[in-house]
Write a structure and sequence with these properties.
single chain, alpha+beta, three-stranded antiparallel sheet, 4 helices, 3 strands, 40% helix
Length: 84
C-alpha cells in the first residue's frame, strides 16, 4: 500500500502533505523525531488525514494534487468539521 497524508503542526497549525510507501503512523514518528528536513522546524506534528492507494503512481499523483491550490480547497471541504 501507498499512503498520502496530511499533517498539521501543533505550533502554528500549518499543513504538510506527504507520501509514504509505509505506514503513515511510522512516517509521523519520523517527522516528530526531527528526521525529516522539511518538517523539523515546525514539530510536533499530528496526522489529521490520509488516503491509501494500491499503485505508487496513483499515490504520488494524488500527493501532487493535494499540494496544489485545488487540493487545498478539497482538503478544507473534506475537513470542514475538524477545522471548526
Amino acid at each position: 500500500m501507498y499512503f498520502v497524508y496530511l499533517l498539521e503542526s501543533e505550533q502554528d497549525k500549518s499543513w504538510y502533505v506527504g507520501y509514504t510507501p509505509n505506514n503513515p503512523i511510522d512516517r509521523l514518528k519520523k517527522h516528530n523525531s526531527l528526521q525529516v528536513y522539511y518538517t523539523k522546524r515546525k514539530a510536533p506534528w499530528k496526522l489529521i488525514y490520509f488516503e491509501s492507494y494500491l499503485n505508487r503512481s496513483d499515490a504520488t499523483g494524488r500527493e501532487k494534487f493535494l499540494k496544489s491550490g485545488s487540493g487545498h480547497v478539497f482538503l478544507k471541504k473534506q475537513l470542514k468539521n475538524y477545522l471548526r
